[in-house]
Automatic annotation (TrEMBL):
Pathway terms, separated by semicolons: Cell wall biogenesis; peptidoglycan biosynthesis
Protein name: ErfK/YbiS/YcfS/YnhG family protein
The UniProt record lists the keyword Ribonucleoprotein: no
GO biological process terms on file: cell wall organization; peptidoglycan-protein cross-linking; regulation of cell shape
């Protein structure tokens, strides 16, 4: 006896016409992720099919002993919390540093910049010689949508010294929720603009390490 593997025999009395399946509707785009045409470099709308809904910006209950105004980077969960009064916080989805390049500890946001220049540190240029045209000696990369720091950057200092780590923007929504950058903490441009407008210079920042990652540069928590 011959077996017809995985082939079903249609019954003549049944209608076998395939019923087309409607495509999944795209999520309704919240205003916070719409295009920003009035920026110095117009920012396109966020590609919501690349950004998991759990990483959308939202205000949440958040109990912590840290004072309001503090930024808390939950590296394992890929969230950044901006602590507000009354046990609340604004929560943002983030991308974090790849294994071996991450940083954790306590520091401050020394200052902020709109549409910053990007100057990769010499150690990065040594690993990636193609970045030489953007080195410190050559003045860095001009601001714009292709600049790795995106629309805004917040500069993290520890003990009065630049850590070389930043909170910065990115147009790459697919990178949020992942460990992809060389140590810096990235938010989609719409979110980093919102954060920029609500964080003061000198605000404390706490970066919680991910125990699953090795070779992490950790300062005293």
């Amino acid at each position: 006896m011959t077996l017809a593997g995985c082939v079903s025999t249609p019954h003549p009395e049944k209608n076998t016409t395939a019923i087309p399946v409607a495509p999944e509707p795209e999520p309704v785009r919240p205003l916070m992720y719409a295009a920003m045409p009035d920026e110095r470099f117009p920012i396109p709308a966020v590609k919501l099919d690349q950004l998991d809904r759990r990483f959308w910006r939202r205000e949440v209950d958040y109990q912590t002993s840290e004072r309001p105004g503090t930024l808390i980077v939950d590296t394992p969960a890929k969230y950044l919390y901006h602590v507000t009064p009354g046990g609340r916080a604004m929560r943002y989805g983030i991308g974090v540093g790849r294994e071996g390049f991450a940083w954790s500890g306590r520091a401050i946001v020394a200052y902020k910049r709109q549409w910053p220049r990007w100057t990769p540190p010499d150690s990065m240029v040594a690993r990636q010689p193609s970045l030489q045209p953007y080195s410190i000696a050559n003045g860095g990369m001009d601001p714009g949508l292709r600049n790795p720091l995106g629309a805004r950057a917040l500069y993290i200092h520890e003990g009065g010294k630049d850590t070389l780590y930043r909170l910065h923007g990115t147009p790459e929504a697919f990178s949020i929720g992942k460990a992809v950058s060389s140590g810096c903490i990235r938010l989609i441009n719409q979110d980093v603009i919102h954060l920029y407008e609500n964080v003061r210079d000198g605000s404390p920042i706490v970066v919680v390490p991910d125990p699953s990652m090795s070779n992490i540069a950790v300062s005293s928590l």
